[in-house]
## 1
Amino acid sequence: MLNQKWLIQIAQTTWKTMWQLMMSNLAPSENGNYQRPSSTYSNTVNENGDYIPEKNRYTIYAGLSCPWAHRTLIVRKLKGLEEVIDLVIVTPSPADGGWIIPQGSENCYTLRQLYSKVNSFYQGRCTVPVLWDKKTKTIVNNESSEIIVLLNNCFNQFASYPELNLYPDELGKIINNWNKKIYHHVNNGVYRCGFAQTQQAYEDACYGLFNLLDEIEIVLENNRYLCGDRLTLADVRLFTTLIRFDLVYFGLFKCNIKRITDYPNLSRYCKEIYNLEGVKETCNFQIIKQDYYGNLFPLNPGGIIPLGVPNYQD
Ligand SMILES: N[C@@H](CCC(=O)N[C@@H](CS)C(=O)NCC(=O)O)C(=O)O
């Protein structure tokens, strides 16, 4: 038997050093505050550009656990674009933390291979979602906040529900306002809690997160959605973080001042969006848990996946 003191000291030193090494590579930070790298491809789709709206020309690559990719799955469904824009579901590789393309696509079996097709020197993160152009074999856009605007605006001539406008001009300003706050404090806020490398950075992120959730709870007291009666892109963006909250962020990312189920209005709101036609099919709680708890190694080295799942059924 190893001497207990030695065992603890060796484990503490090696574990902490490895944790810091992994976090500084995987989750770059400034003074312990997580900094999300910005996306690389930012093209749009329009009649006069390189990427014109066409049926069966584009593919979305998405992972079911990813809240950013989930936004694009929801908008694709709500607009009725399943027959217009293909979907390839990628899965995480526990071995190297990248995304795998299980059935292969464009002769690629990993997302890195797909990114390399566009730029063989690409060294950055290979993130989902990706909006891929099959015609020119290139990435049109890999920023979810932009892809959902494209899906809402640019494919109406082919969409089953062209009349659904999730980003109407008259609400543009208020939607943008929500997006900005919600991105920082909630969407990225949960990651800023989970990937914080100092107590101060964690506390700032966590208080910021719950202050905004408290504020939204009050707004939802008298409003069905963030901007009133109408579902908008701001709701889609909030929803994909909220449905992962009690399941993974509360425990794994230490966002544990309250659960979403402790907020009556936010709970009602989540349930309502979950039960909109098509949305449920985009939510896979088992995969969300398995991917976060199974693959975010630095935060859960034992790989044990907790049992609970929320119930949003009507
Ligand atoms: N700002 C991007 C973020 C996308 C993102 O971070 N996706 C994660 C999955 S949740 C990813 O693919 N990470 C892979 C990696 O960083 O290697 C967006 O909203 O599209």
Note: Residues 169-276 form a domain with the Glutathione S-transferase Yfyf (Class Pi); Chain A, domain 2 fold (CATH 1.20.1050.10).
## 2
Amino acid sequence: MRESILRAIQLGYRHFDSAALYQSEQPLGEAIAEAIDKGFITSRDQLFITSKLWCSDAHHDRVLPALQNSLHTAPGKYEFPVKKEDVVPMDLKSVWEAMEECKNSGLTKSIGVSNFSCQKLQRLLATAKIPPAVNQVEMNPLWQQKKLREFCERNGIHVTAYSPLGAKGTIWGCSQVMGCQVLNDIAKARQKTIAQVIF
Ligand SMILES: NC(=O)c1ccc[n+]([C@@H]2O[C@H](COP(=O)([O-])OP(=O)(O)OC[C@H]3O[C@@H](n4cnc5c(N)ncnc54)[C@H](OP(=O)(O)O)[C@@H]3O)[C@@H](O)[C@H]2O)c1
């Protein structure tokens, strides 16, 4: 993973999406250090790095320790899928307050959310002192999230697409996006790959 990330930085990738659950934080940190060492980038400031507070840490007093773990790249203990008995209601307000403290103390540059619907965002915005900088959601040409994108635009929330190619080749994805005839026709007409026209 470290080698792939290093090569990606060399090729010009600037946003790396990670999470404690993905166990990608340590190789990412090492690759960034090596990229600076090799002169592919001059400073960490040139990159956008996302990590994620995992559901099991979404409790007011576990937010800061979880972030500190991420920053020290200590391997976290996370189980996926989550056991049914571990699914409990989340106190969004108090968890967000703890995330705001992370931002106010300078431990993170920005705070955001993932897989939030308009309704969840509305609930969050009703009490948040710092609005989420970003909402990372699944989005691709066949699932454009129009309503959510409009809502986010109105509220100054940046939308990040995950699985923009339909996650083909992963355990849960499908080939409908990469196998879409319309996209294939557009790609052919433009002499680009399907992935290029999607982006
Ligand atoms: N926030 C969340 O809840 C959440 C959930 C899931 C994922 N994510 C994020 O989404 C990102 C990854 O998305 P993803 O891997 O699920 O989906 P994706 O980017 O839509 O699809 C990845 C698959 O597309 C194929 N592919 C990649 N580049 C290609 C290219 N240039 N041309 C042709 N095929 C290409 C590869 O398939 P082959 O291996 O078969 O070549 C690869 O496995 C990560 O950053 C992850 O953290 C976030």
Note: The mean pLDDT is 94.
